[in-house]
Amino acid sequence: MPELPEVETSRAGIAPHLVGHRVARLVIRQPQLRWPIPANLALCLEGKVIRSVARRGKYILISVEGGAALLHLGMSGSVRILPAGAPAAKHDHVDLVLDTGSMLRLTDPRRFGALLWQPENELHSLLASLGPEPLSDEFNAEYLQTCCKGRKTAIKTLIMNSQLVVGVGNIYANEALFQAGIDPRRAAGRVSAQRLEQLVICIKQVLARAIEQGGTTLRDFVGGDGKPGYFKQELHVYGRAGELCHSCGSILKEVRLGQRSTVYCPSCQR
DNA sequence: CTAAGGACCTGTCGGC
DNA sequence: TGCCGACAGGTCCTTA
Description:
The protein is an alpha+beta fold. The protein has helices spanning 4-18, 41-45, 125-128, 141-148, 155-159, 170-180, 193-212; strands at residues 23-28, 52-56, 59-64, 67-72, 78-83, 92-98, 102-107, 114-119, 253-257, 260-264. The chain binds a DNA duplex (16 and 16 nucleotides) through residues 1-3, 6, 34, 58, 72-77, 91, 108-113, 126, 151-153, 157, 160-162, 169-171, 216, 218-219, 221, 258-261. Residues 236-270 form the FPG-type domain.
């Protein structure tokens, strides 16, 4: 479900319900996520006031005195604010119960998500080697050109590499490359500097626009406020293989790159 | 070092 | 209707 826009939508949706409030209890029904939830996490959080709810890449950081809970939604995770005590369904793995009578509930059918602990003044190893935020100035044409130099990897695979830039998942990689007019299969090192400059602009535009729209709801994604995302209406290639290009009318093609579905217009993208 | 593939897990969908 | 394989928003880890 979540790429950066969906994570940011979730973060923004839950933050007002959490910040400034005290954690009454952490209820863990299923600790086996991608990594086990640390046994001492409840002790780290209970009784503490939540200071901030931030985001780094696709991680949500819920900070309290002493550290931060790191939350990753994986492929199928989502969070919602509910009244404390709402009945739990099959994949409702964790509740962060607040002293307000509300709780944050984590649901994740595939359990590729994670809930970990990062002590204050330490950088969790999962965050240590992440690339820059795509919407920051640090992610610019010059930077991407350096990343691509000499690389034979397909440009799409490269922009999805979180060590180089975070937050660009399969949907938005497809969309950004369409907007930039670049064939996703093209070796990164063989994309001209000018077109990489364009790609940076397109990645930023697509992500920013998707955040404005509350993310992309494919199946049942809803933000922390329970509303679906509306960006799906603006998708040009993702999920549209065999349909007509919105720009030139050609039939969109599909290939696999790094085992991910890749859709592009053979006429507009070179 | 880079690149490619498998692994993790459950639900859904299309085909027979 | 039922079964089986393929596929799904991520990304770490192993292997070559």
